[in-house]
Amino acid sequence: MDPRLAKQWERMVSRKERMVAHVAAASAERRERRPTPTSWALVDVLEHCILVEEGVTTALATEPVPDKPRQLGKGGKAPWWVIRFVLIANVRIKAPVERILPKRESSFPDLTTRWDRQRSTLQGWLEAQPAAVISAPRFRHPLAGWLDVPRALTFVSDHLQHHLAQLLRIDRQLR
Fold first, then answer.
1. How far apart are CA 93 and CA 71, in angstroms?
2. How far is residue 99 CA from its own chain's centroid?
3. How many domains does the chain have?
4. What distance in Å separates the CA atoms of residue 89 and residue 3, rounded to the nearest whole number?
5. What domain range includes position 121?
6. Which H, E and C letters describe the chain, residue by residue?
7. pTM to 2 decimals?
8. Dist CA 169 CA 90 (whole Å)
9. Alpha-carbon distance 33 to 24, whole Å?
10. pLDDT of 15 over the 90 cut
11. Which residue from 166, 4, 154 is spatially nearest to 85, judged by alpha carbons?
12. Which residues pair with 147 in a beta bridge?
């Protein structure tokens, strides 16, 4: 794997492990319970994170179309640093697109298996890429615009940290 990605990858691995361990420690009933009818349950948070990572992986692996140029930072509604601040500061925001909302179709064990497969796919793709691909615009964040691979992984890592805080908040609400 490109050395520019090592720090982000390790943070992603650590944060995923913490999230899964946190949800695994809860009873099966508690994992599925929502604090309010419109809130997410613990498993909903995991499913959302998996959906985001699947989308990022698909976008990274999609080859650019020659007649549709990609420019880093272009095409977004907010600067990259604003997105990072919102995630790191745990500002509560709505998911920017519907396709990353949890569907509640999988059990906790199925979700963890799916996430493991997803991570393996992403890791394999990252390890196969030359430096030119790593530094090129590959993922279009719906708010920040085009990101290169290191920023895409930083986004995923920050996103996981943001949702780890959400898991803790849900636990407090369920008490």
1. 26
2. 13
3. 1
4. 27
5. 3-174
6. CCHHHHHHHHHHHHHHHHHHHHHHCCCHHHHHCCCCCCCCCHHHHHHHHHHHHHHHHHHHHCCCCCCCCCCECCCCCCCHHHHHHHHHCCCCCCCCCHHHCCCCCCCHHHHHHHHHHHHHHHHHHHHCCCHHHHCCCCEEECCCEEECHHHHHHHHHHHHHHHHHHHHHHHHHHC
7. 0.93
8. 11
9. 14
10. yes
11. 154
12. 139
Q: Tell me, what's the pLDDT at 97? A: 79
In whole angstroms, give the CA distance from residue 11 to residue 14: 5
The alpha carbon of residue 41 and the mean position of all alpha carbons in its chain are separated, in whole angstroms, by: 17
Cβ neighbours around 108 below 10 Å, total: 18
88-131 residue pLDDT tens: 988 888 887 788 899 998 999 999 999 999 999 999 999 999 99
Distance between CA atoms of residues 93 and 148, nearest Å: 24
What is the separation, in whole angstroms, between the first and last Cα of the chain?
42
Return the CATH number at 100: 1.20.120.450
Q: Which amino acid is it at 101?
A: L
What average pLDDT does the structure give for the chain?
92
What tokens appear for 119 in the block?
């991570």
pLDDT at 92 (0 to 100): 83
